[in-house]
Design goal:
The protein is mainly alpha-helical and about 325 residues long. It contains 13 helices and 2 strands; from the N terminus they run αββαααααααααααα. The longest helix has about 40 residues.
């Protein structure tokens, strides 16, 4: 034999094995998801933005007729420049309700988030203690959050009826779903009841990672319960609390189903519980141009608030880490 037989396992001369690129594989794997998001989210957003620069189409036989034409920024100026009490803005028109809906949405956001933070933190502190039946309590607390919002709204609608449970327990005759401020308080109560457990769940997760040795050392040093809460619990649970606030603020800014079902989007003078999302749905009945402009304004408002909260969140986390290092 003049030469040894070439081993089958040995690579042939001149043949290079090309390893797959991780980046190309990742793109191929996420391409279906990106395509789905582009169709489901991207196209409607771009279409709504383009429609916001066109005039409202007339409604005939239940369908919007073609036409309308380019309107420029008139749809945006219609919402942003009109104020109630002037001849150009008759009371009761949708344009006059724009700034009112912003006020109602801001009121719901501040009131509900503040109450949910207070009650959620108290619930988390109770659930963080060791006692018999703690698991059952944690499971039962999450039941309101697990109920669909539409079901929650209908439940509170029957409870806030004129002859419902609430009036019978209080011995009152309040029109909870029709009075101006009564309907607002009804929405706040229903929303706090449903979503306070969500805040409690996030705060409880933050409490679980706090070492018990810190509390033991504080007790040895003679710190009271309030001092331990102020100097240990709150600084360490702040990141989880800020995440809960961020999620809840964004949820309430686009709230629709609870006030729409509970008070039919009105209450009192007809717009006491009309939020921005409800106003968008009402405007769709008038035309797509104005509704698209209003939805774009709502999106920019929510985006601005989210951007500010994220910046504030990062700043607070950095400060907390610096205090921990010191």
């Amino acid at each position: 034999m003049t030469a040894l037989a070439e081993s089958p396992a040995a690579p042939r001369a001149g043949r290079r094995r090309i390893a797959p690129r991780p980046g190309r594989t990742a793109i191929l794997l996420i391409a279906p998801t990106l395509l789905t998001l582009a169709v489901v989210i991207g196209y409607p957003v771009v279409s709504a933005l383009v429609t916001s620069f066109h005039q409202d189409q007339s409604l005939q036989n239940g369908f919007f007729t073609k036409g309308g034409g380019f309107a420029g920024l008139s749809n945006y100026t219609h919402w942003l420049t009109q104020t109630c009490g002037k001849a150009s803005c008759p009371p009761g028109t949708l344009g006059s309700e724009f700034w009112g809906s912003i006020g109602v949405t801001a009121f719901f956001t501040v009131a509900t988030v503040a109450l949910e933070v207070v009650f959620g933190t108290l619930m988390a502190l109770v659930m963080n203690r060791s006692f018999r039946g703690r698991g059952l309590l944690r499971a039962s607390v999450l039941v309101p959050w697990a109920i669909p919002t539409a079901v929650t709204a209908k439940l509170w609608f029957f409870m806030f009826a004129y002859d419902g449970v609430v009036n019978r327990l209080l011995g009152t005759h309040i029109l909870w779903t029709d009075g101006e401020w009564a309907s607002r308080f009804a929405v706040i109560i229903g929303d706090v009841w449903k979503t306070a457990p969500f805040v409690a769940l996030l705060v409880l997760a933050g409490l679980q990672v706090i070492p018990g040795e810190l509390y033991e050392a504080a007790r040895v040093d003679g710190a009271s319960a309030w001092q331990r809460f102020r100097t240990i619990t709150m600084p360490l649970v702040r990141p989880a609390l800020l995440v809960a606030v961020l999620f809840r603020v964004l949820d309430v800014l686009r709230i629709y189903d609870l006030p729409a079902i509970l008070t039919h989007g009105g209450g009192g003078t007809g717009h006491a519980t009309t939020t921005l999302s409800i106003l968008v749905i009402q405007q769709i009945q008038q035309g797509y141009g104005g509704a698209s402009a209003l939805s774009t304004i709502t999106f920019l408002l929510i985006f601005g608030v989210a951007f500010a909260l994220v910046k504030l969140f990062n700043l607070n986390v950095i400060r907390t880490q610096q205090q921990a290092v010191k």
